[in-house]
Amino acid sequence: xxxxxxxxxxxxxxxxxxxxxxxxxxxxxxxxxxxxxxxxxxxxxxxxxxxxxxxxxxxxxxxxxxxxxxxxxxxxxxxxxxxxxxxxxxxxxxxxxxxxxxxxxxxxxxxxxxxxxxxxxxxxxxxxxxxxxxxxxxxxxxxxxxxxxxxxxxxxxxxxxxxxxxxxxxxxxxxxxxxxxxxxxxxxxxxxxxxxxxxxxxxxxxxxxxxxxxxxxxxx
Length: 220
Known about the structure:
Blueprint: H1 2-12, H2 14-32, H3 40-62, H4 65-87, H5 91-96, H6 102-111, H7 114-124, H8 129-144, H9 148-152, E1 155-160, E2 163-168, H10 176-197, H11 201-206, H12 209-219
Antiparallel strand pairs: 1-2
Helix pairs in contact: 1-3, 2-3, 2-10, 2-12, 3-4, 3-10, 4-7, 4-8, 4-10, 7-8, 10-12
């Protein structure tokens, strides 16, 4: 049924699908222009952010809304880890040694906090910092954590005589939450690209990617 939903979304929302595909195209164009980058280590996080974007979009197209938000959260987190390690290159050793021993794991947990990374990005990009923060909180609310909105937005309550019935939605059709998730998927893909733009600015500029990203932003 999820697969059928994906085909239905493709058939019935071609313009939205095309925009999501265009965002994927920008990710791929970035990758084609990162050869021999001095910031090669950060590319690992770009790859995972791109993969998470694709995974989140796949869940979204199928109508698996809370699951989509959980994976889209990963897209933003990989982006924020990337820019944090770009600004704090010595922390690569800490990150790499996570499983060395209990003390190393604790050190990673203490340093790599999402709030710290969001604050860092705010200081780097004051224009887009609040946007990234709001999108991240949105993913947490609607599926990144099993929070109230993530659970109860999928529950339908009906009363029948002397009994109460609860149904939980696994697959959304063309509902408001589904349409909102389509938009959020696009926003998070662009947000991830904007984070990495601060790292690979020269590479982005050389091939005109900022103009493409701005055109995609206007659609949103």
